[in-house]
Amino acid sequence: MYIAYSNNNSAHSHHRSIPVSNKVHAVATRVRKLFVILMFAVIIGAVFSFGAMVQAYAGDANTTSVSKSGAKGSTYSVQTKVAEKVIVQRGDTLWDIATEHVVMGGNVRSYVNQLLTINHLQSSQLHEGQVLLLP
Q1: Per the domain annotation, does 118 fall within a domain?
Q2: Domain that holds residue 38
Q3: Closest CA to 85 of 99, 69, 96, 101
Q4: What is the pLDDT of residues 85-131, one digit of tens each?
């Protein structure tokens, strides 16, 4: 019977290897970084989606809505809300414009404040030919 013995000792091998714990640590670090990047992308996507939804549902002065009614025959009615505008004439003041356009029994001072807000005015000074949106 013939038995062969090897002189190779595993402690004195010719190649170096990284210990298993360092490999696992490196993979775990990469996975964590990938997870953080993925979560960041999800959060940014959610923020932009929320902003798009808010903008889509936010009404502006020019709004169009379509409603469907009727049982057998479909009828469509289209409602368009267009902001009323007034062109400032020579001598007009915000108080005069508010007095003309406020609803019966409404507060004129409150209407003037709404005019200032809607038209992004810093003061009550008006210029001839200026176009103002009415609340």
Answers
A1: yes
A2: 19-57
A3: 101
A4: 999 999 999 999 999 999 888 899 999 999 999 999 998 889 999 99
